[in-house]
Amino acid sequence: MSHDPQVRALLRHLRSHFTLTLRSDHGGDPRAFDAPYILDPASNRIVLSLALHPHPSEGVLFIPDDRWDALELLVELAPLSPPDSPASDRFRAAHTGAARARLCSARVLSAKLRGVVASGDDLPLTFSWLDREPELRRLLNADRARLALRASDALVAPAPECLTLSLDPDGILFRTRTGLTRLAFPSPCDTFDAADAAVRALLQDAPA
Fold first, then answer.
1. Which of the ends of the chain has fewer CB neighbours closer than 10 A, N or C?
2. Higher pLDDT, 103 or 53
3. Rounded to an integer, what distance in angstroms lies between the CA atom of residue 176 and that of residue 169?
């Protein structure tokens, strides 16, 4: 995990959203497409749905959409392989309305946010405790009613039927009855012990 504060800001922005706009010169016709996405730390790729066939081989992603303060990513695009990969299962768990979507993966070549520029190699989506992330997911989902109460309090908004989908050094991604939401950790958790402590701190005050 990079400790460069500017790179960390890029990663936080990327992790904090769920939809994007792709701009690409598709078949000689410049067009824009809105799409849901997730991050796949295992492959260091972004996974998104794209209602195009054949899909473009490259493009620019604007996150969360095409506006002046968006994160801009120059990416290479390829079909998600295999199509029934764990990344596909995670995408469909997060974006339940896109069950039949054609998925592709995006490799980041470069990134830009508010004048800060980084190469794709400087923007790692993976992290040191990825292999132990399922332990924290199981801990959070062990009592979903209790989790929903604590998440609602922490998010200052109702979190009905709360299910933890993933964790990363910057926070937790939940799916609730009303959609996706994210809870940021008080500070980055670059080690498993730090993430474990943050999760237990989140749960310890939840009503039984």
1. C
2. 103
3. 21
Q: How confident is the model at residue 142 (pLDDT cuts 50, 70, 90)?
A: very high
Handedness of CA 190, 193, 196, 198 (dihedral sign): negative
- The whole-angstrom separation of Cα 1 and Cα 35 is 27
The phi and psi torsions of 202 (rounded to 5 degrees) equal -65, -40
| Residue-range domains of the chain with CATH | 5-122 (2.30.110.10), 130-203 (3.20.180.10)
Q: What are phi and psi of 70, to 5 degrees?
A: -75, 155
